[in-house]
Amino acid sequence: MHEIPVIEGDGIGPEIIDAGKTVLEAASDARNFGLDWHDLPYGADHYLETDEVLPDHALDELSKYDAVYFGSIGDPRVEPGVLEKGIILRLRFEFDQYVNLRPIKLLEGVESPLRNRGPDDIDFTVVRENTEDFYVGIGGRAETGKTEAELEVERKLYKTKFGLDIETDAEEIAYQIGSISREGTERVVEYAFDHAEENDHDLVTGVDKANVLTDIYGMWREVMDDVATNYDGIDHEYDYVDATTMWFVKNPDHYQTVVTPNTFGDIITDLGAMLQGGLGLAPGGNINPDGTSMFEPLHGSAPKYAGENRANPTATIWAGALLLDHIGEEEAGELVLESLQDVIAEGETLTRDLGGDAGTDEFGETVAERVREQG
Ligand code: IPM
Ligand code: MN
User: Fold this and answer.
1) In angstroms, what is the span from residue 266 Cα to ligand 1's centroid?
2) 228 and 80 housed in the same domain
């Protein structure tokens, strides 16, 4: 029996989670293990009613479990950032979910916006570092409050020391500091190499910006070079993140396992999601191999579609497959992914984003039915 806490969240969250639960329950019947859901109320409604975002006692409770099934968060009635930082980022940080695993795989039957590219071309994994970098939250704003005389001294210094004409008379500055640790980098890079090994990949690509942010990503590369020495038969290389956005589009077939710091990982996986056909198709796992992990679709809560039974639950079902894999039900995870893949490839029951007219629930039921037939 596996006990799984569930946060369905806001907007389309309840509908996509319902579809996901239906499919996972079918898999648990087919593979003879129990699933026991524990629904938790956190999200916009709960916050607006109680002023509580994610209380400490919820974290204590969640810490008892291996995996949380998560829908989507965000609501126009709540200021941006409150729920995202207070729930998603809090879970990632409190539970030290240092890996954000994001498969970029074009399923058969889905058309990529990239011309002439099929499932064989778009099939890689991004391992995004998930607890450091610019997400550490160190930052602030300050009035510089400098006198004209002090500014004059600074200008001279810039001029004589660096030969630069810099205007230093800003009245207010804002700053945000990115920081990574050697240990934090090592563990996620090791995870990426292990992932490569398990999936018969012979290349790990590091994505950074070591040509400009030399301190932070200089160390990132140093660590990658060190870790790589422990893995025979797996090459590694580096791309700058700006170039990566270009290569993802031009040569997606080049990539196998990609590992990248948090911020760039956020950005390039939205691009990756588009390559695989859209945000509705992109799952993610926030993983702490020794703690509480969390599985979710990449997309947000799409408030304008809330309650319309039209959202594509594929990303959530797929995230459920990653969850099953994580809790040791690998066969059930595979069964879910295969069934999902089959239903999409057949093309008879598709949600509107994929050109069909099936509702969220109907799509979920169809995948669940396929799980029962194949299981
Ligand atoms: C994601 C999201 C989050 C992030 C937000 C909602 C905090 O964009 O999971 O990619 O920035 O990581
Ligand atoms: Mn994102």
Assistant:
1) 6
2) no
Any idea what the CATH number is for the domain that residue 101 is in? 3.40.718.10
Q: Tokens 């879910």 appear where?
A: 336
* CB-neighbour burial class of residue 271 (10 A; exposed 0-12, middle 13-18, buried 19+): middle
Domain end residue (candidates: 249, 275, 301)? 275
Q: What is the pLDDT of residues 80-114, one digit of tens each?
A: 999 999 999 999 999 999 999 999 999 999 999 99
As a whole number of angstroms, the distance between CA 18 and CA 71 comes to 9
Q: What atom in ligand 1 is closest to the CA of residue 284?
A: 9
Structural domain total, the chain:
3
Q: Which atom of ligand 1 is nearest to the CA of 100?
A: 9
Same domain, 169 and 186: no
What is the tens place of the pLDDT at every residue in 273-327? 999 999 999 999 999 999 999 999 999 999 999 999 999 999 999 999 999 999 9
Q: Which ligand ends up closest to the CA of 74?
A: 1
**For residue 189, what are the domain limits?**
111-130+180-275
Task: Give residues (CB < 6 A) around ligand 1.
Answer: 84, 88-89, 266, 298
Do 257 and 292 reside in the same domain of the chain?
no
Whose atoms come closest to the Cα of 70: which ligand?
1
In a domain, residue 95? The reply is: yes
